[in-house]
Amino acid sequence: MTIETLNLPRPRWNVIIATVVLHLGVLLAFLPGTFSWAAVGVAVFLHWVTLGLGITLGFHRLVSHRSFRAPKWLEYFLILCGSLAGQGGVLGWVGFHRMHHRYSDQVQDPHDSTQGLWWSHISWLMHDVPMRTELAKYTQDVSADPFYQFCHKHYIFLQVGLGVVLYLIGGWSFVIWGTFVRLFFGFHCTCFVNSACHQWGYRTYETGDRSTNCWWVALLTYGEGWHNNHHAFQHSARHGLQWWEIDLTWMTIQLLQFLGLATNVKLAPTKQ
Question: What is the pTM of this model?
Fold first, then answer.
């Protein structure tokens, strides 16, 4: 019996192998001599740079939703940071996310949460979902940009280059913690937005899908866990809409706005 007769998406073996290697690489952190507080500090710093600035601020709020405008040099810097997060090429990330909002929790949603927690968390990445053929039409505004094309095609080589720099600065300890451990935690933090934030938490708005606000995901992802708020007002630069909903990325946007580096900032209506 073949995959086609079972009507299952074809496995993406390159992604499966890379994911297994990443998870095995984390075990290197338990070897004697690989731990140091400096290495942990590097991992935490790069987690913020690649996930906080790169994915949350850059890939998501700036590019996917155009929640604000930024100078081109800053936009490119954020795209570079996001490309170092190890979550695939920027065009795929943006395209799939836009598709998710259009078809949230429906069969056309790439990580449809009605298919189960495992599917929405990680399994969808490991399969050649049919929606992949539609990606191009969701990224027409950025796909022709040479810098986007470069980062999209060479994100693996950029990661290798970062690893070399880490080795030159602090040896294998910096490589293990600054690459494998950091990528592992960053990867699952983002995946929790797709899985946990469609399963657990509270709902402030009726959005026609299963999106929830999940406080612990928000803490791990610099504010992305206020996912029900985001689905209600997807173009808003602010996701934490209540005083207790801490949104570190919104605070970053406010700082950029104060510095004149964030303009045309979009917000949810004040009377909700």
Answer: 0.93
